[in-house]
Amino acid sequence: MRFGFLYQHPWIYDLALYGLYHGDPHARFKQVANEIPKGASVVDLCAGTSFLFRQLQEKCPNYQAFDINPRLVKHLQKRGINAHSFDVRTDAIPQADVVTMCSSLYHFHPNCKDIIQQMQNSAREKVIVLEPVHNAKNSRFAFMRLLGAQAGIVDGKINEFYFSPDAFQDLIHHTSGFQKVAPAGDGRDMLAIFDGHASTTSEPSPQTPAYS
To answer: How far apart are alpha carbons 90 and 99 in whole angstroms?
Structure first.
C-alpha cells in the first residue's frame, strides 16, 4: 500500500497534526473522550497514532485501535496499545460500547453514510465521528495546503473530497440515529454523535481479532 508522506512515520504524522491544529491537536480528542462513559469499551477506527488513547488510557482501559497503515499499527503495539491492522472497507467492525472515527470519514466518500451505519451496527451505546470541515487544502499558506493534500493520500489513492460544514451537516442529519453535533477543537472540526444499534446482550468482541 502507498500512503502520503504524512503516514510514512509516526513522528511525521504527529508533527503534521500539531501544525494543522496550531500546536494543540489534543483539544478535540478531549471533547471526544468527554462523550465516552468511564469504563466503556472502545473501538477506535482509523486510529493513526492514537491521540484518543492518550485521553482514555485511565478512563477506558478496554480500548482497541484499528488502522490500515501497518507502520502506525506497529508503532501503537510497541507502546503497549491493543492495536490491529484493519481495513474499514472490507473487515467486520468488532463490537464495543462506543465506536469512534476521528478525521477519516472523508476517505470513504461517497460511502460515508454506509460507514457510519456499519459503525452503529457494532456499537452498543453510541458512535462518535470527529471530522474536519475546514480543510487545510484550502489554506492561504502553501505549507498548510501541502499537508492537507498529503492527508488525502491513503492506499495509493488521492482523495479530492473533503467535507464542508454544510456537506457534513447534510450527511449527519440524513443518517438514522443522529443525536447531536458540536464544533470541535478550534472550530475546524465537527463532532457528531449517533445511536448504537448493536444488541446490549451480545457477547463482547474478542480482544485480538483474527485479522490482526
So the answer is: 17
Q: How far is CA 111 from CA 107, 135, 162, in A?
A: 9, 19, 13
The verdict on pTM exceeding 0.90 is: no
CB 82 within 8 A of CB 104: no
Q: Which amino acid is at 159?
A: N
What domains does the chain contain, in order, with CATH numbers? 5-195 (3.40.50.150)
d(CA 16, CA 27): 15
DSSP secondary structure of 58-87 = TT-S-EEEEES-HHHHHHHHHTT--EEE--
Rounded to the nearest 5 percent, the helix, strand and coil shares of the chain are: 35, 20, 40
For the chain, the first-to-last Cα distance in angstroms comes to 17
Which H or E element spans position 99?
Answer: strand 96-102
Q: How far is CA 7 from CA 12, 15, 182, 197, in A?
A: 7, 11, 28, 32
Residue with cell 451480545: 202
At residue 131, what is the residue type?
E
pLDDT tens-digit readout, 83-134: 999 999 999 999 999 999 999 999 899 999 999 999 999 999 999 999 999 8
